[in-house]
Amino acid sequence: MWTRLAAFCSRYAILVVGLWALAAGAGNLFVPQLEPVSQSHARSFFPSDTPILHTTKQVGKLFGDGDTINLNYVALEDDRPLDEAARGYYDRLVGALRADSAHVQSVQDLWADPLTAKVAVSADNKAVYAMVRLTGDVGSGPANEAIEAVRAIVAKNPPPDGMHAHITGPATTITDEFDAIDRQMLMITGVTIVLITLLLIAVYRSLLTALVPLTAVGLGLAVARPIVAFLGEHDIIEVSIFSVALLAALMLGATTDYGIFLLGRYHEERRRGAGHDEALGAANSQVGPVVLASGLTIAAGLSCLVFGNINMLRTAGLPCAIGILVGMVASLTVLPALIGLFGRRGWAQPREVKVSRRWRKIGTVVARWPGPVVVVAVLALVVCALPVLSLQRGYVEARAIPDTMPSSRGYQAMDRHFPPNVLLPEVVVLESDHDLRNPQGLIALEKAARGVMAIPGVRMVQSASRPGGAVPAQAQLSDQAGAIGGRLDEQMAGLSQRLAALDRLQSALSGFSSAIGQLQTGLDGSVTGLRQVNGGADGMRAGMAQLQDNANTVSGYLDPLRDIVNGNPNCANDGICSVVMKVVEPMDGMVEAAEALAKGSAVLGAGSSDMTKSLAGAAGSTQSMRASLGQLNAVSSQLSETIGSIRPMFAGLTDYLREMSTDFAGSGEGGFYLPQRAWDDPTFRQASSFFFSKDGRAARFLVFEDGDVFGPDGADRAPKVLAAIHEATKEGTLVGNTTSMVGYGIGTAQMRDFVGQDFLLLAVVSLTMIFLIMLVMLRSPVAAAAVIGTVILSYLSALGISTLIWQDVIGRQVHWSVPSIAMIALVSVGADYNLLFALRMREEVEAHQGKRDGLRTGMIRAFGGTGGVVTTAGIVFGITMFAMLSSDVLSIEEVGTTIGVGLLIDTLIVRTFVVPGIAALLGRWFWWPLRFGAARRARQTAVRAPAS
After folding, report:
1. What is the pLDDT of residue 314?
2. Phi, psi at 703, each rounded to 5°
């Protein structure tokens, strides 16, 4: 079959190459380019079943500020302190972002509230940030579109002179990482092609010969890309920028290797004297199965990535597998066509080399001393693998991208003004069965916040009880005690003023008491005098009564005379009557006067008696009043003395309360209590509204940490935060609460678990599949197990050297994707190199079956026939991987380094010393249960059939 395929492709070389060129042209003309497809159809960075994604959606429903983890930040940095112009620009930018509801779910404006402004504004007042939650899951096509939309908004609203606006954050970092890969992919591919071309020209010393594998590589890549783009465009397979970069590198290396394999065997047959067609048929019959097995092996290994949970790994599986299969088909068709086309014209012919002789000498050493060779080689590999024991996977994506990327510049701007990780808070959500917006709820929340603050590495916690990152002064018992002390001091000052008035009152009371005493003395004298007057009045009343009686008696004697006067109407003109009238009228006047005096004396006596009684009562009252005043004076004196004695006590209490307030200020240990009047403060309510759900039954905490939050530090600390809240809420009003966590620390922890699970799953599945392929090709479980075992050791050695270079020497952790990607590539490609050598060794052993030292001879001849070819192929593939070092994305650099080192180790050590040494030590058992006699007869029959 393989001979006929080579003959067909050679005969119709123009048609075969033309069909491939037509397919490449049509595909690139009618199918969108792979890079835009991979960007628009990119999947989430986190697995779809990651708990953090479901938790994020639940939290979004509770608080109404978005259901994605696509968190980004608008970071503003000013050359001078922020002023009104900066604030105006900030407000306009926030308004423009909120207006884009298609891409922006929410904007957290902390600057708008005085209590939270000190968190968002730097201490030097030169930088401020606002958190922006965008649509789409991190790393997905919608997320990338949303980030570009936000950047466009910033571009349309340029900042004032001296101010710089950045869009940064974890989600932007992921987008920038893939953007960097996308921009550098063309450069990496170009560097790879140049290096491969130079190496092939150096090996073959002919540009035409070098064009044979290069043409197959170019046509295969040109056809594979539209196929992958078409399938990705219709969501038949998953694609990503990372898979596009890996697709190009693997296809360049593998397809070039296939060309080297076929050219190497063709040249070997030509050197043996075979004609062009015979050499091509023999070469294809021997190499064709190897190429088919290699393509299937690598494709099978890469396809195992679809079983992973991590999207970045899973999306690299099928696209790269399709590319390898297309490259395999191109190698099986285009390579024979080009060799046939060039060979008939005398091109691409072998040149005399002495490399095979050197490889035969190496084969002789391995065949003669297999034990020591294997021991030394394995020991060398084990030493190379030792650094794996200290391997630390790196999950900090911000360190995996160039410092010149937009998100990196944003981080740098924030680091100049804020503490570390200010843009990477963990969000902890606590759900209860009752409203927490009351003093009791705030006390319980503060207890939980204090529990989180006690965790080493936690720098600050924002919550409803501490919206500005620290407990407000008015919510601390020590501050309230200081306020009480201040009010007490004010009251004591007022009391001191009142005590001075009390002293004056005592003096007034003393004077008043003296006046009352004098009044009492005067009243006593008045009473005595009045009593004397009363006695005289009584005597006078008696005398007047007697006088009145006498006057009445005398008046009675004058009645006859009175009758004369009364009877004479003209008495005044009558001499006698007028004389009588002069006697009567005075008498009558005296009688009236005596009567008036008697009445007056009676009244005077009664009045003096009453007055005597009244003054006697007043004297008694003044005596009682004076006694009361004495008692009042004594009480005021006692009051003054008592208040004077407690004043030092109150002064000491005031000083103590004030000192306590001063000493506890800023310590966070002042005790928490927010009275209802403070809770009703609109400013505090506005600040705390961000931390409560709409119904008040859920509250969230923003936890700011030190160290690598987007890495092992954050991942290790996440469960500690949840445990601290659980411990703080075991009793009290929050018993039975539900706690969840959202953020990149907990996301990294979950990601780390997925990475570990994926690695084990991929290792088991890929090794099993590759072992089965090796078993079918080699028809010996021992040989297949030896091949698998050696490539595993080769992989560990490569990973160890990569760890030594990147982690121990350069000081950068090994990216989390490197072990899995390198394992799939090295196990698959390394197995192919060993397969090629093992098949050639089996062929030579079968050819020398029955001869003395047939196994040893076959091994030496296999060295001579494949040594130079496999070494060239390994070096070419390794250089292809090393070309990825031209990127400045850490994951690409480390993947290229690890795979490149592994290919060189597999080519120069494992395939050269370990596998042949094991085969020599085991002898025929290496091939068990294969019987070479039967195999040789079957092979001879198969070879004669095409010839006849």
Report:
1. 85
2. -105, 120
